[in-house]
Amino acid sequence: MKDREMNQYNIQIVSNLTGLSVHTLRAWEKRYQAIIPERTDNGRRVYSEKEIEKLQLLQKLCSIGHSISHIANKTTLELRNMLSTHGISDEVEFNSYNVSTSPEQTEKTLRNLMLALEANKPEILSHEFYNLKMTMSPKDLALDIVAPLLRKVGQKVAHGELTVAQEHVISSIMKFHLGKFIYRGFEEKKEPAQTIMLTTPEAEYHEFGIILAALLCSYHKKSFFYLGPNMPAKALAQAIDAIGSKEVLVGTTMHTYDGNRAQLTQYFEEVLSFTPSDVNIIAGGDGIFDSGRLQFRPNFTYFSSLDELDKYLAQKALPH
């Protein structure tokens, strides 16, 4: 029998993902055979991604007046074409910000991820992250899963309980799955002045700080442009000029320039000197620099934590 565990979802998760009640899902199956999901050995329904996609398209069409009895047996392509004739996007999203996760469940998820990493099971790690990105909001994923997981992995590597190779494995898997949030922004139309650019200082290749910042921007519907790590001060100024952004977040770590306070301070001073005064430079993370020399610059802001950045973005965000 085909392995049902990979990328299949129970009826409660499908209800959250589609906005259809469990009762409606069962009714559409029984009365119209819209979707006939597989069953587990104990009789529980499990839905594939393609089935979820069709259910989402059906939900959209029913919401604008179509009768489920007339469209239940149409193909996914036919449903997409119907939406297009109404001028409605046929793009569907698997993300649902309504799937709540208790602290106990979050802690269990973190334990399972660590066990899979310690057992060298990358396929399990990838499967878990796939499910997490489908059922958690970008904000919860960033603050409750990725950030604490990175801390746990870093601590275990420092104590010799995990290898550097294992750290690279989990980093690669996370970057692959989180790329959905980061790079889809390139396809969206942006208002340059309302776009936050994300990068790290020259020679700083640790980019998870700005990846997490990108997740928060995605959650708060704040337009962003992900430049990636390792950006020289002058090149950053050129990018600001080319894109027209009025805000730049520069992610740092305590290891940026090996903790050389003067060097990181100089980097920020160079960035400020190269950019117009109406461009706000935001320093993020735990990089070490001389705050006394920068704190009175009107276009320089410092956030030491993701929570502070989250609050800042919430104040600027569009209504959900």
What does this structure look like?
By secondary structure, the chain is of the alpha/beta class. It folds into 3 domains: 78 residues, Multidrug-efflux Transporter Regulator, Chain: A, Domain 2, CATH 1.10.1660.10; 81 residues, Methyltransferase, Methionine Synthase (B12-binding Domains), Chain A, domain 1 (Orthogonal Bundle), CATH 1.10.1240; 127 residues, Cobalamin-binding domain (Rossmann fold), CATH 3.40.50. It is 53% helix and 12% strand. The chain is built from 14 helices and 8 strands. It has a 5-stranded parallel sheet, with helices on both faces. Strands 1-3-2 form a 3-stranded antiparallel sheet. Strand 6, helix 12 and strand 7 form a beta-alpha-beta unit. Helix 6 crosses helix 8, helix 10 packs parallel to helix 14 and helix 11 runs parallel beside helix 12. The two termini are 42 Å apart.
Number of strands: 8
Could you give me the name of the CATH homologous superfamily of the largest domain?
Answer: Cobalamin-binding domain
Strand content: 5-15%
What is the CATH C-level name of the largest domain?
A: Alpha Beta
Give the helix level as a range of percent: 40-55%
Mean pLDDT: 88
Core attributes:
320 residues, alpha/beta, five-stranded parallel sheet, three-stranded antiparallel sheet, disordered N terminus, Rossmann fold, single chain, 53% helix, Methyltransferase, Methionine Synthase (B12-binding Domains), Chain A, domain 1, globular, 14 helices
Write the layout of secondary structure elements.
Layout: E1 8-10, H1 11-18, H2 22-32, E2 38-39, E3 45-48, H3 49-63, H4 68-71, H5 76-85, H6 103-118, H7 122-135, H8 138-158, H9 164-183, E4 196-201, H10 208-219, E5 224-231, H11 233-243, E6 247-252, H12 261-274, E7 280-285, H13 291-294, E8 300-303, H14 306-316
Parallel strand pairs: 4-5, 4-6, 6-7, 7-8
Antiparallel strand pairs: 1-3, 2-3
